[in-house]
Amino acid sequence: MNTKPIAKLSPGRKKWCVLFRHPKLSDATGRPRRVRYGIGIEDRQEAEKILADLNAILATEDLWNPGAKEIAARTYHPTAVACFYEGIEAKIVDPWIRREGVIELPKDGFSIVQLTGAVGAGKTTLVRQLIGTDPLKERFPATSNARTTIFDTEIICAPGDFHAVVSFLSTGEVRSDVEDCVQAAVMAVAEGLGNDAVARRFLEHSEQKFRLSYILGPNPQLDEDDEDSDEAEETEEQVGEIGDDERAANRSNLLKWLNRCEQVADRVIRELEDEFDETATRMTEKDKDAFLQLVSDKLVDDEDLHTIVDEVVDAIEARFQNFDANEFDRDSSGWPIRWRYQSGNRSEFLKRVRWFASNHAPLFGRLLTPLVEGLRVKGPFAPAGWSDGTDVPPIVLLDGIGLGHSRGTGVQISTSVTRRFDLAHAIVLVDDATKPVLEAAQAFLRTVTASGHERKLTIVFTKLDRMKGDDLASGKDKKNKVLAALDQGILGVETALDGQSGAGRRLRRILDSGRVFFVGGIDEEIGERARSTRKELNALLTFVRNANQPERPVDATPCYDLAHFMFCIRAATDQFQKHWNVMLRGEHWTRIKALSRRFANQWSDEYDTMKPVAHLRDLLMEKFGPFVAEPRGWKPTNVSTEVKDAAVARVLVELRKRVEDYISRRLREEHLSDWRVAYDRRGTGSARLRANDIRSINEDVAPVPDEVPAPLASKLLDDFRDIFREAAAAADAEIIAG
Predict the structure, then answer these.
(1) Among 407, 420, 431, which Cα is nearest to 511's?
(2) φ, ψ dihedrals at 730, nearest 5°
(3) DSSP of 608-654, one letter per residue?
(4) Is 261:198 a contact under the CB 8 Å cutoff?
(5) Could you give the 3-state DSSP secondary structure of residue 272?
């Protein structure tokens, strides 16, 4: 087999790439997977030196294991080393660190405020009010009725110049998403869908986070009037930056790629029809689904499809040329990993930042928003028009991805949200008063309370002005109706967490202490007549400004007997196994494959609604709640309920972070090779085998103690005993037995 990479000039680009078959990664046929890596070099001689070093690594089998990277790095060019080892080494890089390296979160004197809420509830609109950005002239952060916030945004309100840092998805993640989009378009053709559906699948990833339309231009199958955007109105300044020639070129390129997707689909279908001597149009629905899976497997290694992917990735990278190259930090291949900018001019600053944060349709074709992993800005942001104060409030706002629209049971809160609980001084749940406390909001309340962080919680109900009904004669009637829904939501939390855990009582006490706010019309300027909303916003701002006060010392020590601890673990793991066994049988094979891909490439621990780390964390914390709330004894014995609740919450806080870290390490790192085996499954029956692989991973990480061999059960129980002991020690609790 020829594994020699070939350096070539990408179409329309000046920098060299290497193309080779990776001996440690498999493709659909079991052969080494095709890898294309941009080396960021224009000079041919230098590119050939890198090429020679890469060939030397490929010729030395002893260097093919991830552990040999340091050895290779002593001898060979760092870019050649990166070409080979990227994708086979276990690495989980938190891009938060990349942003922290440029703009540090302030340590003292600031309140860190985490905001979350269901998609469309007005979370980011509330952020706009708190930082005083104009909804039409500045449009920052971006809003819409769809899933708009697709990355973490951190806003530091502080005097001085304006600073920004953006961290980007890796080139591997971008290429993977592009490949998903191109394959989805080809599959849409294979399914017999129309041109509009094919274009939509090409331009918008199924997760609705990666949208090629922002980068490459709008759907060429639609009229301009059909495009949805941030707001309908647009300023001359915003429209005028993309000329007609550029728009026409973007449209031409998109139509060319869509046409080639259709050609790939037609060819692959013909090849499979010839192979099986059967026409796809005559197949039964069951046979057609199996046939489409074969089409998908064949596309994984299709050279024509990969050529389209190569061209799209090159077109994406070319968009970075619209900016000053000195503002970017790049990896060894030349791919931007970070953008930084500073200005004393607010207008110029927001104008530059919008290319990385906007969703404004007239700018489609140049926006880099889908490539952004996270954005951090710092500057003299302050409320405009409604605040009783005139200073820049010392607050940090953490705005993340919304909670989704799910109404079903079993909603899990992403680890990207929960891992910021410990950092935040205040946690703000933003909910829609016209649809209050649905399953996503209940799930968030449940997770916050089970984690012991309810003392940080506040709720803002938006859109109070849009509540309509014959029974709503006044604003008080509206608030009472929302509060009734909140009471029902807390009752649901109490039921889910077991009434004996005291979760409902703790949550009610916190929210009854002036922690619920009602606002309306915050998508517009808050005028003098909006007295109620102005009053509520000022009260909210006061609360978050003061949220960084040190906690009161808890003069109580819970004492635990671990003898009954195993029953909590058994209940959680049993429920986890049953849920995932049903899911692995019922979910479409493409979604299971997408989940395995994210774990295999160490990009994420979830895909859409499938969140194994978050799910197991929630189940364990829900079962641990009653155990933690009912210790064997207390020191001293005559402690008030309020003091006991504070001590219990402190134990839950320490326990949650350790449980989440443990599950993440076990699932993501220790089973990395198993996830890669699962993802690399191809051919007839691969969906069933992949599901079995994931089931085996789950059974190893979360075995049901009395249903597995004693050594496996003992390890699980010992691990969690150690975790609880560490959490108890950190929370000043005692272990008296077990």
Answers:
(1) 431
(2) -70, -25
(3) TTB-HHHHHHHHHHHHHHHHHHS-SEEESSS--HHHHHHHHHHHHHH
(4) yes
(5) helix
Q: Show the tokens assigned to 253.
A: 């390129």
Q: Which residue has the tokens 């001293």?
A: 636
Tens-place pLDDT, residues 670-721: 998 899 889 888 777 788 899 999 999 999 999 998 887 878 888 899 999 9
Say if CB 401 and CB 372 are below 8 A apart.
Answer: no
CA distance 346 to 160: 11
Instruction: Walk me through the domains of the chain, giving residue ranges and CATH numbers.
Output: 6-85 (no CATH), 98-159+380-545 (3.40.50.300), 171-322 (no CATH), 557-737 (no CATH)
Residues 197 and 48: their CA atoms lie apart, in Å, by 43
Tokens (6 digits) for 651: 């134990």
DSSP state string for 453-515: -GGGEEEEEE-GGG---TT--SHHHHHHHHHHHHHHHHHHHHHHT-GGG-HHHHHHHHHTTT-
d(CA 366, CA 164): 19
Beta-strand relationship, 111-117 and 162-168: unpaired
What is the distance between the alpha carbons of residues 700 and 693, in angstroms, rounded to a whole number? 11
DSSP-derived secondary structure for 345-381: -HHHHHHHHHHHH---GGGTTT--GGGEEEEEEEE--
State how far Cα 286 lies from the chain centre.
34
Greatest C-alpha distance within the chain: 82
* Cα angle 568-570-576, degrees, rounded to a multiple of 5: 105
pLDDT(556) > 80: yes
CA-based Rg of the chain, rounded to a whole angstrom? 27
- Would you call 527 helix, strand, or coil by DSSP? coil
pLDDT, position 86: 76
pLDDT digits (tens, 9 = 90+) for 564-610: 888 899 999 999 999 999 999 989 888 898 899 889 878 889 988 89
User: Is the peptide bond preceding residue 141 cis, with omega within 30 degrees of 0?
Assistant: yes
Sheet holding 16-26, edge to edge: 6-9, 16-26, 32-38
Exposed e or buried b per residue across 272-294, where buried means at least 16 C-beta atoms within 10 angstroms of its C-beta: bbeeeeeebeebeeeebeebbbb
Q: Band the pLDDT of 18: cuts 50, 70, 90.
A: confident
Q: Residue 325 carries which side chain, given as an amino acid letter?
A: A
* Strand pairing class (372-379; 395-399): unpaired
pLDDT tens string 32-48? 777 777 777 778 888 88
Distance in angstroms between the alpha carbons of the first and the last residue of the chain: 59
Burial of 106 (0-12, 13-18, 19+ CB in 10 A): middle
| Rounded-to-10 torsion of CA 108, 114, 115, 116 | 180
Interatomic CA distance for residues 267 and 190, integer angstroms:
10
Amino acid at site 523: D
Spatial separation of the C-alpha atoms in residues 68 and 54, rounded to whole Å: 14
Length of the chain counted residue by residue? 738
The average pLDDT across 280-290 equals 71
Give residue for tokens 């001689």.
Answer: 45
How far is it, in rounded angstroms, from Cα 198 to Cα 220?
11
Q: Which DSSP string do the residues of 542-591 spell out, in sequence order?
A: HHHHTTTSPPPP---EEEEEGGGHHHHHHHHHHHHHHHHHHHHHHS-HHH
Copy the structure tokens of residue 45. Answer: 């001689």
Structural contact between residues 589 and 290, judged by C-beta atoms closer than 8 angstroms: no
pTM: predicted TM-score of the whole model, two decimal places: 0.87
One-letter identity of residue 286? K
d(CA 731, CA 423): 17
* Residues whose CB falls within 8 Å of the CB of residue 310, separated by 6 or more in sequence, listed in order: 10, 11, 36
